Amino acid sequence: MSSETLQLFYVGTDAGVWSRWRNPDGSWSDEQPLGGVVGLGDVAASVVPGTNILQLFYQGSDNGVWSRWRNPDGSWSQEQSLGGEVGPSDITAMVVPGTDTLQLFYQGYDNVLKSLWRNPDGSWSTEQSLGVEVTSTSITASVVPGTEILQLFYKGTTNDVRSLWRYPDGSWSGEQNLGGAVSPGGGINTYSNITASVVPGTEILQLFYYESDLEVYSLWRNPDGSWSGEENLGGSAVTDITASVVPGTEVLQLFYLAPARSVSSRWRNPDGSWSDEQNLGGQLTSEITATVLP
Prior knowledge:
Strand content: 35-45%
Strand order of the largest sheet: 4-5-6-7
Number of strands: 23
Structural class: mainly beta
CATH superfamily of the domain at 1-133: Fucose-specific lectin
Radius of gyration: 19 Å
Shape: globular
CATH class of the domain at 1-133: Mainly Beta
Largest sheet: 4 strands, antiparallel
Distance between the termini: 13 Å
């Protein structure tokens, strides 16, 4: 497969990892079984920094972190157990800015935020507890624009937006409460996870989630490090919010599932104003993923 290949990974009906890919001519491959047994959660994929290796991460049947990777020649490794203990959580993989370290974040079975990381020499750390209690099924990780700070966002025990960040020297901040009131239930998800996106053409990092009234809300980090108050964007969402920059523009567009199971959208214009909600139709039973094809 070439560097222009878009590849999908997901859990099959046999609980194993499966894949298919889009060829450069626009055709799609048949499904390929990659094996393994996935517990709860989805499959995370990340390129190993400094290499052409694509590595997958998922919760195994023993609740530990498991992995396999695609070598540059297209072959796949055997499964590898990385240890740890993953709760009812997805695994987030993120390259630590300014390094060749790939770091994983997830909720442990004790509801505490946990981490493992891959060192540049290919060895893996032991599990580290970051010491804060989370109730999100997915930890959002983002690089703060214009910095080498890696910032995490998650739902706290009182349903507000919480954050921790990693400084360039490897130390971690204390927990910060950003406010808000993330939904503890009512949608297809048990609760809303938090989506983070850099506003195109700016150094503003913006968060999106839905609350118990199922309306879309937002908080954002200004370039000076201060945080806005919560903004109600309206609409009606029953799944996590997907954010994507419209190609060739500075428009940030949101997609989510409406209560009627159709796709709804709204977008942020370059001047900071927001559109009205637009119903794109359809009849869905899952969350929405938006990606720009290479």
